[in-house]
Amino acid sequence: MPATVWKGYLSFGLVSFPVRLFSAARAESIHFHMLHKKDLSRVKEVWYCVEENKPIERSEIVKGYETAKDDYVVVDDEELKKIAPTTASTMEILQFVKRNDVDPILFESSYYVAPDEKVGKPYALFLAALTETKSDAIAKIAMHNREHVVIIRPAEGGLVLHTLYYADELHKANKAEAPKTTFSAKELELAKSLVGHMLAPFKRAAFDDTYRENVERLIEEKKKGQKITAVKQPRKAPVIDLMEALKRSLKSAAPSEAAPVVGSARPRASRKSAHKAA
């Protein structure tokens, strides 16, 4: 049974029904232990009190919010539970939006919304209503010491929830604008032809984390005392003749029927996980 991230009620008008949230995805990467270079022994993280100039135990640590220079208000977990909003136990639908109305740039984390086994009809009805109207639901939920705005949508026969970034959390100053330049109608037609040539359904299982695989291979090679297999990096040069580059790209691109997935994808192979942190 997967770990429950949140449990409570989903409120839809006067209808409320119990649900649970389960994590829908987690990024996988290679984790390295920190070792002492001299003897390769494990290095421990030490909590250190600056005032007393000595290490302390984790049990001696409390949460504090700095209100002024070196002036803190201490808050414990029980106090935080007392002031938790109603969304800590009930997700109330605030509104509905048309499918694809919310920009994916706002999506933060994804969760599967599971129904309580004893009360399945309201869940199924809610899912059917969203599916038939091609709508998504907007709600608020408090978890992980924060209140989130979320979007709930139908996906693969069930409901999926995405927490959303707030407007002030987007780094709009980092936004890139398209350069003010011109291109010919022929260049646009060639670019559109290249897109159409490579257009295909997206298949998640066809993509692998090449960097992760290379690190695993590196570890295995070093473990066996073998020579490290270096990866040759491609040399890229700025495009001088855009029209010629488009023509050559179109000529060399595999048609979508022959290559159903764009990119250097290949079938996922089973692999042994390299040494990871516990």
Task: Jot down its keywords.
alpha+beta, 7-stranded mixed barrel, 11 strands, 278 residues, single chain
Task: Please count the beta strands (DSSP E, at least 2 residues each).
Answer: 11
Uncertain segments: 258-278
- Gross morphology is extended
Tell me the β content.
25-35%
The secondary-structure class comes to alpha+beta
Q: Specify the helix fraction band.
A: 10-25%
Radius of gyration: 26 Å
Order of helices and strands: EEEEEEHEEHEEEHHH
- Rounded to the nearest angstrom, the distance between the terminal CA atoms is 20 Å
Number of separate helices: 5
Query: What is the overall pLDDT average?
Result: 87
Q: Main sheet?
A: 7 strands, mixed, barrel
Strand ordering within the main sheet:
1-2-8-11-10-9-7
Structural features, described:
This protein has 278 residues and is of the alpha+beta class. 21% of the residues lie in helices and 28% in strands. It has five helices and eleven strands, in the order ββββββαββαβββααα. The strands form three sheets. Strands 1-2-8-11-10-9-7 form a seven-stranded mixed barrel. A two-stranded antiparallel sheet has the order 3-4. The protein has a two-stranded antiparallel ribbon with strand order 5-6. Strand 1 (6-12) and strand 2 form a beta hairpin. Helix 3 (185-198) runs parallel beside helix 5. The radius of gyration is 26 Å and the shape is extended. Mean pLDDT is 87; it is low at 258-278.
